[in-house]
Amino acid sequence: MNNTKTLTSLAKAMPKTELHLHIEGTFEPDQMFALAQRNNVQLKYKTVDELKAAYQFTNLQDFLDLYYQGMSVLLKEADFYDLTMAYLEKVHSENVIHVEIFFDPQGHLSRGVDFETQIHGIHKALRDAESKWGMTSRLIMSFLRHLSEESAFETLEIAKPFLHLIDGIGLDSSEVGHPPEKFTNVFKACRDLGLKVTAHAGEEGPPEYVWQALDTIKVDRIDHGNRALEDENLITEIKKRELTLTVCPLSNLKLCVVDDMQDHPIRKMLTLGLKATVNSDDPAYFGGYMNDNYVALIEKTQITKEELFQLAKNGIECSWMDDSAKQAHLKSLDSLFLA
Ligand code: HPA
Ligand code: ZN
Description:
The chain is of the alpha/beta class.
């Protein structure tokens, strides 16, 4: 077998974690149309092909415009369950053993869908995946950064009866013009409640936004973080704080964060000693799930077996799963790579 084939089969077989995944970004067009019909919602696109043809983005905002339209078909608990379960089935078949999922409650509350409907649908699917396959999970409630801090505070109040189902808080949506410092107070309130915190930073926004994620939000990890590489002092600080970067290769390509997969900085991140991980972000929109992201790196960059191993290891070590589960998965990863 040539090297690409060997690495591809290793990537597919290895136990993987997904640490950066928006559940609303897993909407496959077929399922979106089926739910639109079930709920009598009119989509802007008439056919699946017409919708797919719209998946050409030049930046984050292009994508977000479509993403918010897509989620408009989610109305009932069963819709959130079905969406989540379809994603979990898919990644279970790809040897993903642990997922950390974002959801965007404000994107649904604004359409009159209550919090309980959303979280119960998602949570029941996560619970079923654990009982069926032993797949573990964490749930991250994300604030939409194009909205105000006041709106984030209101969302936190609404979420309070459900905090036993929520492990962490994230910050997503349109980055440029909405720096992390806009949300300093609400993230402090979240940390005081014992929640972990993470934020999208340095996807399109400048290194200054990543500094703010560190110093004002006091993140436990950084989502994307690509533009942190522009600032040497920032790289040093991220390493000092041992923060993970949840990197999303196919997303970066689709949203023009990188021009060519060949130039993706993930290998450079590893060389610099940063804890990079591989994730899919919004797989239904960006052309692939976990294995596709690894395959793209294998086929387009000169990634080595050691780097592949390091990425998978980072994914387990840097996740928010229990230590005993981490040890068990690291052991099976070791035996696969050292066989
Ligand atoms: N970036 C910011 N916000 C998002 C994304 C993303 O890639 N996906 C869904 N919301
Ligand atoms: Zn994201």
